[in-house]
Batch of 4 targets.
Target 1
Amino acid sequence: MSLRPKHWQVAPAAPPSHIARFPPLHPITVQVLYNRGITDPAGVAAFLSGESGEANPFALLGMNAAVTRLRQALRAGEPIAIYGDFDADGVTATALLVQTLRALRGHVRPYIPHRVDEGYGLHNEALTQLARAGIRVVVTVDCGIRSLDEVAHANRLGLDVIVTDHHSIGPKPPEAVAVIDPKQTDSRYPFGELAGVGVAYKLAQALLRSHRQTPVTAQETRLEEEDLVDLVAVGTVADMVSLTGENRTLVHRGLARINRMERPGIEALCRQAGLKPGQVDATAIGYTLGPRLNAAGRLAHAKIAYQLLETKYPAEAERLAGELSRLNRKRQQLTLETQERARQLALATAKDAPLLFAAAPDFLAGIVGLVASRLVDEFYRPAVVVEVGEKTSRGSCRSIPEFHITDALDECADLLVRHGGHAAAAGFTVSNEHLDSLADRLRGLAAEQLAGVELTPVLAVDAEVELAQMSWELQQELAQLEPCGYANPHPLFLSRNVLVERHRAVGKEGRHLKLTLSDGRAVWDGIAFRQGEWANKLPDRVDIVYHLEVNEWNDQRRLQLNVQGLRPAGLDDAVARLWLDQDGPESKET
């Protein structure tokens, strides 16, 4: 198995007649929108404003039953538990619903399981403890949709369970008081890609609207729906769900609130990360804030992240944000070390298999998902990384668009204790006696489904342009495409035969490449992250794929090219692959 250069796939050019329909916009901006299927004036205006609209929360299947039971609990003073997950999506969802119910004078407590001691999802022991503590209603967030046995156990304990989740549904939903998941087959909700925190927000929205129409307490709540959208933005981006449709609207609004720094915990986290008001975008959440929040659940307990989000005291927020930053630095080092071990194990076990599988007792449960993701990035194969326990093992899976990993786990259900997830990411628990059989079956499924498929990652290029076409004016228009992320990527451009005026390796161990590039009319700074191996082998002229970004340093703002791919000028994919095999950088990554 060898690393392959990415295929540069340039989108077809929009017809000139279409470009002419939008005279105020730069033609490149119109082309980018065209590539995303946004082609009518109303759609373009809505997309660029970031306000594509929100659906009525009561359109979600199960919402009426959930609101009815929670309002009953609020009137009667029944204790409520919010049962969350230990990742950023689950923690933000937990904080959001706890804040909402407390604002409605509810008796509510959070419960987030420990990743190592308990693992993902509902657990009978935890439900039993909650029942003994007097809890009468349990609301799950970002979990529960496949917990049929656990919900049945809760029913026997006299607990009323409301499931809110966004993961793929199994053969049938749990027998709860209400099940809210936009992926239910009989759902008529117009947007099915909400994050867990997005579903929790819709429940909060419904509760607040019902309360204002018919208050359940004598005292009015001061909480507004807009007070919660910062949590929605953080959890949605961190969970890497589609940033289109309603998610785009919610994240757009949430980012505006985050940049006002109105929540002490988020303000402290930004300060620890060196982010100033106005600098937080989806990229900052995905690469800076989200990993810090996730670090708590990976290496300690997610309650640290929860406490940060719910505290009202700046001093406490600063202390907790500092602890998360420390944990994140430790997480980064452990991930690098585990990645190399998993890589060696996977290749030694089945070097040419279409699915990578690595299992070891010293792999940390909080790290295996990150390691699987990096193996996918490196080899463009589905990857499974497993922490082997005494009797059972826990694995995390990451996949590619050509292979639905949760469907594959469904076909291995007879071997598994539990499992769940999405098309691209999933997790499972398996008895050790079935671990080898699971690896063999997953490899077999991958071999069958990927037979004849050329597994080559793609750089989806929006337009081929001249460097001289890049400008501040274009950047200001492209900025209106934010928030960018999954399903709404940063616009990528291809420029050919670019002169490399200067270049050098930068960063720790020279991992990155700093460039000065010119097309004879314009000169640009460029940065190619994780491509430092080119430093000693870069030809004078290259073709580059990049997106335009603003580099802020020492209170100065400059445009630069963030180079995602480069190769000698004039080579097509096949020749570039041959060149890389013979003469290119040792990592063979472009």
Note: The two ends are 17 Å apart (CA to CA).
Target 2
Amino acid sequence: MKLTASRSNRTRIGRFLACIPARLTPGHRQKDPMTTTSDHAVPVQVDLKQAAAPERKPLVRWLLANQVAPSGPEAEEDHKPNAWWKVMCLTGVDYFSTLSYLPGIAALAAGALSPLATLLIVALTLLGMLPMYRRVAQESPHGQGSVAMLEKLLPFWRGKFFVLLLLGFVATSWIITITLSGADATVHLLENPMIPEGLKGSAVIITVILLLILGGVFLLGFNEAVGVAIPLVAIYLLLNAAVVAAGFAHVFSDPSLAAGWTDRLLASAGGGPMDLIGPAVIAFPLLVLGLSGFETGVSMMPLIKAAGNTPEEVMASRVRNTRKLLTTAAAIMSVYLMSTSFLTTVMIPAREFQDGGQANGRALAFLAHELFGAGFGTVYDISSALILWFAGASAMAGLINIVPRYLPAYGMAPEWGRAVRPVVIVYTVLSVGITIAFNADVNAQAGAYATGILAMMVSGAVAVTVSAVRRHSRAGTVGFGALTLVLLYALTANVIEQPDGIAISAFFIAGIIVVSLISRVKRTTELRLETIEFDEAARHFVTDSIAFDGQLNVIANKRQAGDKAEYADKEYEQRGLNPVPGAADVIFLEIEISDPSAFSHTLRVEGIEVDGYRVLRVKSPAVPNAIAAVLLALRDSTDRQPQCYFEWSEGNPVGHLMRYLFLGQGDTAPLVREILREVEPDPALRPGIHVG
């Protein structure tokens, strides 16, 4: 029905234009829109999802105080930024702590060839992993890592499930990092000769206590975690420097040590060069675990301080500082790995690396006791235990910065999943449960630890390879492609050697998918929006409609041809089916599905006129939620109660439900009413829903 408001009506209702701002954040109701003139328009910004929520108790407010921003260029970080070298210490508690066990693993796996196997790892670090993660930092500067890069490869639901798969490996890697590092810290404490024998059987209890303390640190905040990490890393590196310096002095003073090693090396090479290379390559997958700090380094980019006058300059500065972090950490670790691998191989008898040996899992601690005595050795044991314990902090920070950026945004976790403290509690409880289940046994968790880390590395290598292909970088494509193959070899070898690791990873993946789907179903009737934007034409349409008779009547329409005949037939049909007042003006509301796998979305309402029929068009992941949001925004902005008119949808209700869950559309009218009922508890204040 084509209706035109009179000049007097336009003048009288013109003030309403100021009350439908160009940008609306729904929720707050402007009490008297007639008092606001177009010359002094103030955008109404309120939150409908919280409008009817009861006042939160102090404990709840404290738990939800710190939120992890959604990933993306508009994300705002709540954490106080820190200098890159300070954040390096937080990532370093994971990366550098591998010195506690990696030289022993290399010696056990490769024997006299341990330094050669370690050299392969150092080469991979400097020539492969470092360039790879420098590229990842540039292309995902908000801390999402390679997950965000790979998410772009697949659209819609395929992309979401792909991310869930990757997050399953991320969770495996970092949660097992927390539990395994805590258990290894306990081992270092209990192996000290000064520890009473009565504590030897208390590994589970001690590990659980360490995990609870770690969770408590993160409940205080990120800055407290960074503050703890700095002295732990500094002291640990200094103690290792002392051990390395004393070790080389001892080797130089006793030529028989180096001579004995070279004799063993020559004996190993008796059959030719392949006898040297083969064992080193076989041991290589076990040593890749020493590269675990790169992904966490990238995930903590939001914590790194950056300078600049514009957002672009700040982001470029953050990328540069992250690259400094990665390069410095890689250089420090490479020097320590080569020196400690050489010293432990030359100075420690092979039998001590075996099960039950004094150097098993703690080669450098063994040297510290041998070179400096029990006093220094005890200090070293305590430092090793502390950095291993706090290696879980690096993993916890990575989990907090990655997982909440995806699952709540997908509707696959409760909204409180964005808050730091609740997820810290969840991860801590989960870590305690895993520790008890594995009896705080380091070896029992090693397979899952390796599988998770290697899967993350493979995903990063694939991401940068695809990026190089898209950038037409031939050198990058060849180099990163080769890196992908190397890491795939390491992952495959690890799965064959320790199949329990992939089984545990599958458990995490299945758990995330099940929890995500349940959460998605439970959250389907949420409002699911952050912002509504009305263009100028849409604002005028609403103004004119109210000007005609003081009412706001909206007809929901699923656009077909979008021509004059469609709207004429639709209006005629609705006036016959529903109680649309005979002389009332109407506006059509049409929702076009954008990405049904998305959950929340900024709604942009566009006004379109088709042969005199006024249409509000919106793109949204879900039709019912978008209609409810627009109706509530119109109600709150105009102080008028919108009346929306529908017709019943044909089809099976179960089929409609499945279509709504996965395609964003179904039997729209009852879903719109249910969403309005949940958002607005007062029936008298809800927009009217009429179905014929």
Note: The first strand starts at residue 23 and ends at 24.
Target 3
Amino acid sequence: MNTNILTFKIGGQAGQGQQVAGLIFTKACARAGLYVFDHSEYPSRIRGGQVIYQVSISETPVFGAYKTANLLFALTEEILTEHAQNLSPDALIIYDSSAVKNVPAAAKSAKPIPLAELLAKNNLPKIAENMIAIGVCAAAVGFDLKFFKTAIADIFKNKGANVVAVNQKAAQVGFNYACEKLDIKKFPYKLKVKKSAPNRIVLTGNDAVSLGAVAAGCQLYVAYPMTPATSVLHTLAAWSKKTGLIVKQPEDEISAIHMLLGASWAGVRAFAGTSGGGFALMNEGLSLAGITEVSAVILMSQRAGPATGLPTWTEQGDLAYVCNAGHGEFLRVVLAPGDPTECFYLTAQAFNLAEIYQIPVIILLDKYLSSSNRSVENFDETKIKIDRGEMLTDAQLAKMKNFKRYAITKSGISPRSVPGQKNGLYCCNSDEHDESGFSIEGFQPDMRNRQVEKRAAKLANILRDLPKPQMFGPAGAKLTLIGWGSVKAPVFEALKYLDGVNYLHVPAPYPLSEKIMAEVLKKVKKLVSIENNYTSQFANLLREQTGVKVDERLTKYNGSQFFVEEVVELAKKLT
């Protein structure tokens, strides 16, 4: 693969601090002007089990995770055994000789480092072994340690100057040991400091969603913690004083969605977040949004199910579910960003769509996108335009003798009032209703038909306003991969190594326009879906809604995202 990309991996038992170490590596490289992409794999427990953190670094943008590493630091024997097989031929392997007693054949050239001895000799606590590892790896890639020390100070600043000093000392110990004791000069993957990139930021998909919500004027975020959506709750709570946004953790997801609906009904831009199991508890509230025509923006970050499944791993297994969740028939929109930039702008667009069309809008992420850091160009907040839809002013209501909240209109959108507006009073409940909101008494099929048809009439304009599919890669390609959400990352990176292959990214997988899909696919020669699920859920949805049938289906469903090498291998077999 590309020798201009260095992939660094550190692994050990949960609790050994490799996630912090990996994040420091990411931040240090980014601050040196390099592009980064990282991700972590970890079990759903506090202690025990193996955890890895992986960072790919380059002078040019990196879009997805590689399976093959060039630099591995193993804190345990299990990591050395498992990951020594996924290394480049010229890789550097370093391991803790205090913990590893049996070196596998695949790692026979690995270099030992006595972490326990170095900790004792330098009067450092055991938890600092991860910082010694970082210092060793900084020396191996020929990097100035000052970037790592700055990142360490940033990560640990809230824990006090002493903690910062101890961790910086540990990194220096590792750096010195590597320079003096390890033969690292011949390691070919050296990092060069580039000019600073003031307009570039590094963040996760969840970070970008949080920023998008603030930029969109969100005033309330409500969520019960559930991996992998939880960090949005933490981030927005930390920003609450600065932004004025109210953040609430209720007792469960049932309360969360009803708080969301109550706030939206009252005229507040509100937002809720969860994962698959929590979304299941929101279904009745979702249907309530459908019939009351109260806007609802919901972040749903997927993990591998069903039930608890693999709670800290990734999958695109909930697309069909969110498209059909809730009882009865009502419109909803599903937006599926593929990278942090899309997370920012599509989150802001979700609030507009929800309020313009008075419907639920679901922002569908997954663990891979939610928690992977990536270098992107800074967002342009001036592109965010807030549109609150048809909200009646006091002056407009004053001219009305009889306000009909659910008035039958050609567009399907009925102008709304908010509580407290004079002449804007109406009845809002979960029953089918007439134009004023009063429950239909007895059997009134005509009004029922008219209300159902009114709500459904919004579809044509919704399809017009959704973000359009985007084609990337050469025109006239022999093979077109089609996907949604986080598969964009590995496919984008894989296109660097593929000839005659392009990629159609669908940022709004539901609902789909037959006309738009026919237009964008008219020159496609061979269409292949690629998804992180077993049943090719988007391919099924594509055929159901547009009649388009894919020629082949590429799927992965073991709890891991596609790696770049896997996409390249699979695509080459089909071309």
Note: The mean pLDDT is 96.
Target 4
Amino acid sequence: MKKRGLVIAEKPSLMRDIKTAYDTIRTTLPYTLDFTALRGHFMELKSPPEYDDSWGQPWTLEALPMIPRDFEFNIKNDCKRDYKSIKDMLDSGAYDFVINACDAGREGQAIFGTFYNHTKCKLPVKRLWASDNTIPTLGKALENLLDANEPHLKNMEYASFARMYFDWLVGMNLSRAVSLKANRTIPTGRVMTPTLNIVVMRDLEINNFVPRKYFEVEGDFGLYKGTWFDKDTNENSFSDEAKAQALIDRIGKKGKITSVEESKVNQYAPELHSLGELQKDANKAYGFTAKETLDLAQSLYEKHKILSYPRTESRALSTNMSKEIHKHLEAIKDIPEVDKYVKAILGDKPRIDKTMKSKKYVNDKKVTDHHAIVPTKQKADLSKLSDKEKKLYMLVVKKFVAIFLDPYVTNKTTIITEVDKESFKTTGSVLVDMGYREIYGASKEDDIIPKVKEGDTVDVKGFNIIAKETSPPQPYNDSTLIDAMEKAGKFIEDEELKEVMKQSKGLGTPATRDSIIEKLIERKMLIRKGKTIRAGEFGFKVIEILEGKPIISPELTAEWEEKLTMIED
């Protein structure tokens, strides 16, 4: 008699997809399955007064720090009915094992682990691990279930619980301490507060910016022009216009070409999309907010099943996935905007093989829980997509197709002209091949430089002083703030922690950065002004109160991530 298992998916939509996959292969499996689903996080850590009456209202400094002896969870109010229903199934005695079918990653481990531990169920647990929710992928995952007690899975679960506990400790204790000192409620968190600080610091730079004038000297050599530079220091401007004029006054009217360097530059397509890169591209192209992009990507993944798992930090594919890459290309070969490129790629197996051997695009070491975002093997019906869904899907499709196309090629030329031992630099390029940029409809006007050779003498037609002014830094928008959160290591001085932050991909996760930004806006610490994100008066006040405290620096997250990674390892 076949064993019987209960699949617990993270969401009802995923449960339905897994059931569909199961129905296509059920006769080949050595077990039968029933299905149910959570609604994301069913559980939440208890509030302070639920551990100790003295931790309730009114808040006092004497009660701090609040450190529970053991952390405990409550069932969320709107999940109690579903919780009871699933627990009854677990307690029924009908099942031999359970399958954790939550998202494959640290967060999925947390969602299942908090629920399952709370039920006190003792049934053995299997783990379904899939990179997308297409039927073939889910079917393969059902055929290759993992043991949930495998060390890497258990360690990931331990790390997920450690992160929850310490976020509670920091959030609850610091929020109260700061609020009591400021005499107003100030929510504080180890990701939220450094993100706020990043925006506040940029806005302070903008507010305190004093423009500085500088002057460049341009020489006109008839067929081309060049900009003066100091060949010893590489400086190319003067802070004083009189000094620029003095240079012009002391040099003559004859020049000599002392150097001509020509080089062919091949620029290959960039790496594939992580969620962060997709959020940045969508913001630049269409003004989508980070949250909007995640919601659209989630719909394309969950509802339409034409996008791989979106909450990923990876920009590369796994070696295992690369073996079936032609199926992903087949799924998009009839899309009008890319059909001619895809059909040509599919007819050129050596090109596909060469691309799949490139460490830039296929690299197991660069793949974390999930590979880069790409179109799935399922053919897309664009007529069923909203305008925004189609725009986002096509961003992913074009970046995916681009990696198989030729590089963008230019011939770059640099000329150095000397006039009485003063040097002038001229640079330009000529387009050779549009390569992968053609898929984006890009065009480039050549900055053509005449054919000259070293040793040629040239007549100086004249000099021109060009007055310029330094510009303040640009305010953050969704794209640049997501980028700053990803690259938060640049705000850390400690070199070792800077590297940790780089490896851990910065503040927050691809799945949470958009919600952190929105939470700060909702609490009036940040303000969205058109496409820009600025610090509000309340945000400035919070950072002023916390000045010098570790909580405003990404360094705290780097230290945590270092330890969480050690737990996972």
Note: The mean pLDDT is 92.
